[in-house]
């Protein structure tokens, strides 16, 4: 079990960290658009769309890393008073009942959504009309990564229970 | 030879032979659309739902949801195509990414006006072409709403000649953006939420939106001086209602017929409703902005460049080609009557007397 | 099946949400899970249909240009943090305002008010202040509750003082001339300043009464610097942030950039400041990027969960339930107004402002017209109320943003406790706007002559 946990963590962390650098080209594209429009009176046809693609992929591929680093907001009014063991049980039940069905289906639906788009080799409804099936595929990847990371949170809590018992 | 009556109502014969069993099954459907509640397009979609509920005595109850309530504006098509929502309302040009052929169904630069759409759709096989295209995506389509000609470009720069448009920073989207760029303007597809401030602060020189009554609430007249007319990019916007085909096929025949009639009723009502509101909106708008007309040579230049662009689209997309050529054939055939009936545009007597005949 | 009526579902949905939030799972996941359950009940257990709608909604969020400002403003705050610009400013303000009780807290209110005029979203202000001001205040012995209250409330002014995404969305929704975006912008300036003044006065009074909440510095520490030194310290440390504010605000006002684009210029600007301070190493850039990702993802995950929730809520007919509640009995105009405000306030405790706008504005605006309310006045009451929704527990974005970036020792309970008095101040502000409508209508009449 430890090796599964480590493999998922390392995969999501590596992709997440590399992906975090996307914010730099995001700044670059926006600034380029301002310069082209304001100084050269030549706004691009692609700037706004490119901006949104980068921003969208940026956060989708970071959801799992954020889960790994416990970055998603929780309200710990009740659970902070529990013992370590109690917290672990709460997480195990919570993830089994709430997270798995919902984000398992979400990952599946996002893959199906991307698959339809790939089948059409879908392009955007715009003048620039770039292919959007790759972006939709990355959205699906983001949800798959998030699901795996949630699975990891679940496994880590089981692991913790085991350790407490020993 | 003896002359027969000139026309035939193609529906009449089949309609007398039909034997309906009135259904009493109840349907509760949802409709999604790209319109937020502040737009009159939303009211057109709602009008259709109301008509259907009234005419079916509630047997078919379609609940309308504005943009973002169920799915985001631009996901209307996908959600209905997949069957997650049963009904959608649209302006067809939004689905250009699925097929460029959708653009001429909704209207394009120097495309059909509302009279043209009515004749082309109902009498010249346009509806069948539309159904062919929507049908590729598992959809059943009906024309359902017209808003007529769009206003021109709200602008802080006065522009009537070709040279005036050169380098102008205009916000528009789709084919018109490409065409304006070819004419030397600096068109940008800036997203909707940014337009007002951008126009106010001068990030943009101009922006186009929709018909006067629909545009009025945007308040563009507060922050611009001119409207560069006419709205060559959309002489007559055409909306459609479309159904997931599996859902449509579940409807009993009598309800299907009622839906078809209600769509036509909405088409009639919406045009008249909007046009009457347009004249009221123009009275208010012109308190703040001046309507300036492009001169004829400029219009011809716009038309030439548009036609060239459209011809290139036709080369690339067979569906667009089929639809545009059908519309062009209609325009040509109709010219004899358009010509013969010209020069009695119903201006008031005072205006006509000044020599304004067309 | 009687239990499936919309009233029952609406109440059940909120009830279950509150119960599940207490389980301590990430809030965004909880929102999504509750939305899934009720979505399935509503659509006859058609799971593939429901999740297809969710996928469509996620794609819609990925195409939301206004939200691009979120990672950009967070990156700006991250780089600014590394550049030590804020630390210097707060050190200087500390020395200058140090003898005033609560002085550093008052400085935060002033900085936030200025910052509010540069950004259209609240995430940025709260995140930036959480990173910059929270450690500074806590180091100087400010009470945790007061510190978090100041930052959340003052940081949220960004959504009210123009430019504001909320006002842009509102103007688009009503589709009315009287509430065009320009009018709303003009109308929101004075109410925004009014709230800032209320915070200011409140903090000062509390710290005067109980100096341990926001201690002034000792006489000897204060006397370390001469008056001239204090001034030069302050002026020097003020230059970089003012230059940055000018970069953001100036480019918007000069028509060079849109508010979203100005966020990118702000990020570049703070990078330049870090460079001048010799802090712009590869490691710093990389760490800023990873932190930016983590915080953006926290915010966006909430957007995803919140979107699922509001989609199902509206799709079930929850919006209609609200109307029936309102027009059911024959209420007097001020009672109707009170009920509408109470509904918005209550919804604000649980769902996000955009969902509330989508639900309430199309329903309430016609009622307000019927009751002969001034549309601009009514709209601004709604907007101030919605601004409050960022602050009200349990679901308040400002609170979560702050928790995400504040020093470890700050817990959610501190934030919840700390925000309460400021929510009270919001209500005082609402009352003042109710009794003195001129605060709202004066500037629009000056700008637009209406
Ligand atoms: Na602001
Ligand atoms: Na709240």
Automatic annotation (TrEMBL), chain A:
The chain crosses the membrane at residues 21-40, 46-67, 88-115, 135-155. InterPro entries: DctQ, TRAP_DctQ. It is a multi-pass membrane protein. It holds the Pfam family DctQ. The keyword Transmembrane helix applies. Its main location: membrane. Keywords: Cell inner membrane, Cell membrane, Membrane, Transmembrane, Transmembrane helix, Transport. Belongs to the TRAP transporter small permease family. This is TRAP-type mannitol/chloroaromatic compound transport system, small permease component. It comes from Desulforhopalus singaporensis.
From TrEMBL, chain C:
Residues 14-438 form the TRAP C4-dicarboxylate transport system permease DctM subunit domain. Its main location: membrane. It comes from Desulforhopalus singaporensis. It holds the Pfam family DctM. PANTHER family: SIALIC ACID TRAP TRANSPORTER PERMEASE PROTEIN SIAT-RELATED, SLL1103 PROTEIN. InterPro entries: DctM, TRAP_DctM. One of its GO terms (molecular function) is transmembrane transporter activity. The keyword Phosphoprotein does not apply. This is TRAP transporter, DctM subunit. It is a multi-pass membrane protein. Keywords: Cell inner membrane, Cell membrane, Membrane, Transmembrane, Transmembrane helix. It is found in: Cell inner membrane. The chain crosses the membrane at residues 12-41, 61-80, 150-173, 185-205, 238-257, 263-286, 298-316, 336-364, 376-403, 415-436. One of its GO terms (cellular component) is plasma membrane.
């Amino acid at each position: 079990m430890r090796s599964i946990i480590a493999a998922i963590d390392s995969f999501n962390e590596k992709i997440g960290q590399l992906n975090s650098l996307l914010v730099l080209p995001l700044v670059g594209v926006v600034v380029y658009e301002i310069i082209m429009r304001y100084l050269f009176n030549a706004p691009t046809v692609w700037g706004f769309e490119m901006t949104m693609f980068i921003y969208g992929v940026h956060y989708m591929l970071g959801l799992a890393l954020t889960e790994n680093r416990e970055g998603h907001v929780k309200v710990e009014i009740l659970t902070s008073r529990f013992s370590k063991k109690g917290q672990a049980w709460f997480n195990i039940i919570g993830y089994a009942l709430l997270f798995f069905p919902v984000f398992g289906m979400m990952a599946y639906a996002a893959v199906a959504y991307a698959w339809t788009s790939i089948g059409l080799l879908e392009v955007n409804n715009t003048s620039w009309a770039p292919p959007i099936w790759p972006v939709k595929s990355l959205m699906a990847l983001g949800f798959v990564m998030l699901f795996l990371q949630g699975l990891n949170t679940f496994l880590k809590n089981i692991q913790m229970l085991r350790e407490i018992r020993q | 030879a003896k002359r027969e009556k000139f026309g035939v109502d193609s529906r009449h014969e089949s309609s007398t032979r039909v034997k309906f069993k009135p259904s009493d099954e109840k349907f509760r459907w949802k409709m999604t659309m790209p319109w937020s509640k502040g737009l009159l397009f939303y009211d057109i979609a709602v009008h259709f739902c109301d008509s259907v509920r009234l005419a079916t005595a509630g047997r078919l109850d379609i609940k309308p949801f504005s943009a973002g309530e169920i799915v985001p504006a631009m996901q209307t098509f996908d959600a209905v195509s997949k069957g997650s929502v049963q009904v959608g309302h649209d302006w067809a040009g939004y689905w250009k990414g699925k097929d460029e052929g959708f653009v001429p169904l909704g209207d394009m630069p120097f495309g059909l006006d509302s009279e043209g759409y009515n004749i082309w759709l109902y009498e010249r096989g346009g509806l069948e072409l539309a159904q062919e295209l929507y049908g590729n995506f598992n959809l059943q389509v009906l024309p359902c709403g017209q808003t007529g000609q769009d206003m021109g470009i709200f602008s802080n720069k006065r522009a009537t000649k070709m040279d005036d448009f050169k380098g102008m920073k205009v916000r528009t989207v789709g084919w018109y953006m490409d065409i304006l760029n070819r004419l030397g303007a600096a068109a940008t597809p800036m997203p909707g939420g940014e337009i007002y401030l951008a126009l106010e602060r001068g990030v943009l020189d101009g922006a186009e939106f929709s018909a006067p009554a629909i545009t009025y609430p945007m308040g563009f007249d507060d922050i611009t001086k001119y409207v560069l007319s006419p709205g060559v990019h959309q002489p007559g916007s055409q909306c459609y209602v479309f159904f997931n085909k599996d859902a449509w096929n579940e409807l009993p025949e009598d309800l299907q017929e009622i839906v078809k009639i209600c769509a036509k009723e909405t088409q009639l009502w919406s045009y008249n409703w909007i046009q009457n509101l347009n004249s009221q909106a123009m009275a208010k708008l012109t308190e703040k902005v001046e309507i300036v007309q492009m001169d004829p040579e400029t219009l011809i230049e716009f038309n030439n460049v548009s036609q060239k662009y459209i011809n290139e689209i036709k080369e690339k997309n067979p569906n667009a080609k089929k639809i545009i050529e059908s519309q062009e054939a209609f325009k040509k055939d109709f010219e004899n009557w358009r010509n013969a009936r010209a020069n009695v545009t119903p201006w008031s007597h005072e205006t006509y007397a000044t020599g304004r005949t067309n | 099946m009687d239990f499936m009526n919309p009233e029952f579902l609406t109440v059940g949905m909120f009830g279950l949400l509150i119960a599940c939030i207490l389980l301590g799972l990430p809030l965004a996941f909880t929102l999504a899970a509750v939305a899934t359950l009720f979505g399935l009940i509503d659509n006859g257990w058609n799971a593939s249909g429901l999740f297809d709608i969710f996928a469509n909604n996620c794609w819609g969020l990925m195409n939301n240009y206004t939200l691009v400002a979120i990672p950009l403003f967070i990156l700006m705050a991250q780089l600014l943090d590394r550049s030590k610009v804020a630390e210097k400013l707060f050190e200087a303000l500390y020395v200058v305002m140090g003898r005033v009780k609560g002085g550093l807290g008052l400085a935060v209110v002033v900085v936030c008010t200025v910052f509010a005029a540069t950004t259209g979203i609240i995430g940025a202000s709260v995140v930036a202040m959480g990173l910059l001001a929270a450690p500074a205040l806590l180091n100087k012995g400010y009470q945790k509750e007061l510190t978090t209250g100041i930052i959340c409330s003052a940081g949220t002014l960004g959504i009210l003082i123009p430019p504001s995404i909320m006002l842009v969305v509102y103007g688009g929704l009503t589709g009315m001339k009287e509430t065009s975006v320009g009018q709303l912008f003009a109308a929101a300036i004075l109410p925004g300043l009014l709230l800032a003044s209320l915070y200011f006065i409140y903090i000062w009074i509390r710290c005067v009464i109980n100096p341990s909440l926001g201690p002034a510095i000792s006489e000897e520490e204060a006397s370390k610097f001469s008056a001239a030194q204090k001034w030069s310290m302050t002026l020097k440390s003020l230059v970089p942030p003012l230059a940055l504010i000018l970069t953001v605000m100036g480019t918007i006002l000069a028509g060079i950039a849109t508010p979203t684009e100005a966020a990118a210029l702000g990020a570049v600007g703070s990078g330049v400041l870090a460079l001048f301070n010799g802090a712009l190493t590869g490691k710093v850039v990389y760490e800023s990027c990873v932190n930016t990702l983590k915080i953006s993802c926290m915010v966006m995950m909430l957007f995803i969960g919140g979107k699922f929730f509001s989609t199902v809520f509206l799709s079930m007919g929850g919006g209609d339930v609200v109307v029936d509640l309102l027009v059911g009995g024959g209420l007097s105009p001020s009672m109707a107004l009170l009920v509408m405000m109470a509904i918005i306030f209550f919804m604000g405790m649980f769902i996000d402002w955009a969902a509330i706008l989508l639900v309430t504005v199309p329903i309430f605006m016609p009622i307000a017209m019927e009751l002969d309310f001034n549309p601009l006045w009514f709209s601004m009451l709604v907007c101030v109320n919605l601004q409050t929704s960022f602050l009200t527990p349990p679901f308040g974005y400002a609170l979560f943003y702050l928790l995400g970036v504040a020093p470890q020792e700050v817990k959610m309970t501190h934030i919840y406790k700390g925000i309460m008095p400021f929510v009270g101040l919001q209500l005082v502000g609402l009352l003042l706007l109710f009794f003195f409508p001129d605060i709202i209508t004066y500037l629009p009449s000056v700008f637009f002559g209406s």
